[in-house]
UniProtKB/TrEMBL annotation:
InterPro entries: Epimerase_deHydtase, NAD(P)-bd_dom_sf, Sc_DH/Rdtase_CS. Belongs to the NAD(P)-dependent epimerase/dehydratase family. It comes from the Bacteria. Signal peptide: none annotated. Keywords: NAD, Oxidoreductase. Residues 15-172 form the NAD-dependent epimerase/dehydratase domain. This is Uronate dehydrogenase.
Length: 277
């Protein structure tokens, strides 16, 4: 189903997915079912275990619950937290302290890998006519984007200083189909997202990866050299769904249309677009 080689039985990995009741977590739950020796699902929202699953309650603001969730795990896929723009207090609790708690617990428990879900909003103020790689300076387009830059930097610290293998995925947008014109550049299909995460879990040992979570879109804003290193080969293209798509209507439409982050750039915008080159 994933377009990956069939396995004779579950692979030996012991995987924890945090934020498992969310939009992306539900995709991974479905698509990674039965693939690993342990698939443990965690969320602040109660979960009921299905066949071949373990579940537990996790609050990223409570280190004791993280430590319990990580017991016996060798790879964490960290989705839990604040997934859209919010006030600083919310972002601080979930995406700053929550992510710090997660990495620290992973270090203490001897977890080998952390797959951290960042966002393209970490680099949203690059212009749409630029194609950027994974080595550009951050240009967050929101408080949320800044919180993702923090997670990426923390991942780098835990890779370099403590020897964790860390993969950061700057997700474009995971949806069944692209929903507006910008999505033709940033969309990743649910199948491709599962393929990418599976490669992050299963690829031979790496140190630190900065990946874009994107399908094989001809209009992509990004090159993805680290994806090649782990053998991620997207199978889907947003272009197959292009008919009838239009720019998402927002205030500051010109700002939305100019930058990769789209309406995240336009929200609260009071600057001079010509200075944001
Ligand atoms: N969906 C996308 O297209 C997209 C795009 C870019 C980045 N991302 C990132 O991917 C991850 C998942 O996104 P999503 O769309 O599934 O978000 P979501 O909001 O649907 O899911 C987030 C999950 O985190 C859980 N959660 C919230 N607070 C928590 C806490 N204190 N402790 C434990 N769990 C808590 C929620 O219950 C929920 O299940 C996020 O980190 C998000 O920033 C998603």
């Amino acid at each position: 189903m994933l377009g990956l080689p069939e396995t004779a039985g579950p692979l030996p990995h012991k995987v924890l997915v945090t934020g498992a009741t969310g939009r992306v977590g539900r995709v991974l739950r479905r698509k990674l079912a039965g693939r690993y020796q342990v698939l443990r699902l965690a969320d602040i929202v109660p979960l009921e275990a299905g066949p071949d699953e373990e579940v537990c309650r996790l609050d990223v603001t409570d280190p004791a619950t993280i430590a319990a969730a990580l017991e016996g795990i060798d790879c964490v896929v960290h989705l839990a937290g604040q997934a859209v723009e919010a006030d600083w207090t919310v972002l601080f609790d979930k995406n700053i302290m929550g992510v710090a708690n997660l990495f620290e617990a992973a270090r203490e428990k001897g977890v080998e890998r952390v797959v951290f879900t960042s966002s393209h909003h970490a680099v949203g103020f690059y212009r749409r006519d630029a194609v950027i790689g994974n080595d550009v300076a951050p240009r967050p387009d929101s408080r949320y984007g800044v919180s993702k830059v923090f997670g990426e930097a923390l991942g780098r610290l835990y890779a370099d200083k403590y020897g964790l293998a860390v993969a950061c995925i700057r997700i474009g947008v995971v949806r069944p189909r692209p929903e507006d014109l910008r999505h033709l550049s940033v969309w990743i299909s649910e199948d491709d997202f599962a393929r990418l995460v599976a490669r992050c879990i299963e690829a031979p040992r790496y140190h630190y990866l900065m990946l874009y979570g994107v399908s094989a879109n001809p209009r992509a804003f990004w090159t993805n050299p680290d994806a090649d290193k782990i053998g991620y080969v997207p199978q889907d293209s947003a272009e197959d769904h292009a008919a009838g798509l239009a720019e998402r209507p927002t205030g500051h439409g010109a700002v939305t249309a100019l930058f990769q982050g789209g309406y995240y750039c336009a929200a609260e915008f009071a600057g001079d677009p010509s200075q944001v080159d």
